[in-house]
Amino acid sequence: MTYFSYRTQPSNRLKIPKMPIPLFNSIASWLLKKRYHQIELFLKYPSDVQNEVLRQLIDFSEGTMLGRQYGFEDINKYEDFANRVPIVSYEEVAGLIERTRKGEQNLFWPTAIKWFAKSSGTTNAKSKFIPVSTEALEDCHYKSGKDLLCLYLNNNENSQLFMGKSLRLGGSKELYEDNGTFFGDLSAILIDNMPLWAEYSSTPSNKVSLMSEWESKLEAIIEESIRENVTSLVGVPSWMLVLLNDVIEKTGKTHLFEIWENLEVYFHGGVSFAPYKEQYRKLLPRKNFNYYETYNASEGFFAIQDRNNSQDLLLMLDYGIFYEFIPMNSSGKEERAIPLWEVELGVNYAIVITTNGGLWRYKIGDTVRFMSKDPYRIRITGRTKHHINAFGEELIIENAEEALKQICQKTNAEIMDYTAAPVFMDGREKGTHEWIIEFRKQPTDIAYFTEFLDNALKSLNSDYEAKRYNNITLRMPKVHVARPNLFHDWLKSKNKLGGQHKIPRLSNERGYIEELLKMNMES
């Protein structure tokens, strides 16, 4: 069976002329729903589909430099692949990627790669350049966009999504040419190659979407979008919230349905939605309004929420990505990845991917937990490097987000952004965690807020609770209230404003928090 096919040349996308919106809505809905029958194939035969994906990736890449180095032509099963090809981080493949950026081809992928997504999944100064092949564009990124709509429409048969437009908010900047190749935000690459039908059904225009200066771009987006019949929102929750609050302020309305009456769904991803959920409910006060989460990155598109009102994401198995998983409880042991068919429920795993963009057994840096195996549904639990484990407490993003969600419900506080880091032991002084939080609505009693945070973390994380017992290792956490726009100004100082740039929530080092505390004191 063949689940996807590779092309040596980009396909000619259908150029759809302008047509009456009701007709466009009917045609688009019909085409997208047809895809659901293909999705049912990997739901029914997940292991077969994943094995076929790996087989096609290996066969297609036999003649590359890596293919010859690892003897792809002799690999006949997963075990051969796992034994021959090493698991790698970005630093270990950066040299090959840089050679390709300078014009060398056929190193790790057989078709020419001319686009590179400049990744800023963290605010680290060092940038990553992720190769984006034609196959990755067509069979992963664009396919996933259609599948997101397909799954949503399958669950909401009365949807009028295509009767209006989708308000998209990316971090796009123009693409920059370097030695005949191009680099920039993934969203810029996607927009640059987008089919006409997608632009026709979206707002703002490509010209505005690709503006570099963030504040001017927000103003331009508002000017264009408030005149449109917006039926859906697409973007990272933290940055979308900034835009939507600006829309409310500019129009003088009390909620978004007074501006866009037919708004029905928000497609979000990139950061956890938990700290922002209540603020969105105030802006979108309809019980039947839908929220759909996605899991995508510069390296590929991985999972989509496939049911209304669910926190679980369906792992998409036919995008030209082969998945492996490293149990996070295997620290100190030999690092061993397992294939999809060996995963267990409830275990925290680091993801390893092999992709149609030429990444081979690549550690993406994210962690997930499987919530079901029939079908394979996951929840994102954090980053392998974004956690606090200075004292053996193993505090992960999932713990932090849930604790803050509970506190906000209890205290009616609203959080904009936050970060946390350890305060290391000094002599006989015990360690602690230091938080800096920017509130939209500040709690009346920070001491009570801090105590609740501590208790919530204890209830969610037994390692944290053990270290806090009688202050054996950890003291009560310290919480600083950030001045308004602190995180915005910090990102701006690093030229990292925009929808694809994220605040590092948890860190084992104090670099981020020291800079933020200094800026907070200087105001």
Descriptive report:
It is built from 18 helices and 21 strands. The protein is an alpha/beta fold.
Q: Percent of residues in helical segments?
A: 25-40%
- The CATH C-level class name of the largest domain: Alpha Beta
CATH architecture of the largest domain: 3-Layer(aba) Sandwich
- Which term fits the overall shape? globular
The count of DSSP E runs of length 2 or more, i.e. the number of strands, is: 21
What CATH calls the topology of the largest domain is Rossmann fold
Query: What is the C-alpha radius of gyration, as a whole number of Å?
Result: 23 Å
Pfam families: GH3 (PF03321), GH3_C (PF23572), GH3_M (PF23571)
GO cellular component, one term: cytoplasm
GO molecular function: acid-amino acid ligase activity
Domain GH3 middle: 315-383
